[in-house]
Amino acid sequence: MPNIGGPELIFLLVIVLIVFGAGKLPDVFGQIGKGVRSFRDEATSDKPAASTTTTPAADTKKTN
């Protein structure tokens, strides 16, 4: 995987500035920061993750 150096980083920042505009950048980076913060909080929490297993449906076939 290639390293991102100074010129590449400046190029990416210029592209982001062109796409979103100077007025929207604080909002965009704020939302990215909130997303990273919530991901980090969930990753380090002691609570178990939400269960992804399903319970058997009540209308399954019954054998007689």
Binned strand content: under 5%
Radius of gyration: 23 Å
The helix/strand class is mainly alpha
Low-confidence spans: pLDDT under 50, at least 5 residues? none
What is the helix tally? 2
What is the mean predicted local confidence, pLDDT? 80
Could you say which overall geometry the principal axes of the C-alpha atoms support?
elongated
Sequence of secondary-structure elements? HH
Helix-residue proportion = 40-55%
Profile the largest sheet.
Answer: none
Distance between the termini: 61 Å
Multimeric state of these chains?
A: single chain
Write down how many β-strands occur, each being a DSSP E stretch of 2 or more residues. Answer: 0
Provide structural commentary.
It is a single chain. With 64 residues, the chain is mainly α. The protein is built from 2 helices and no strands. It has helices at residues 6-20, 25-44.
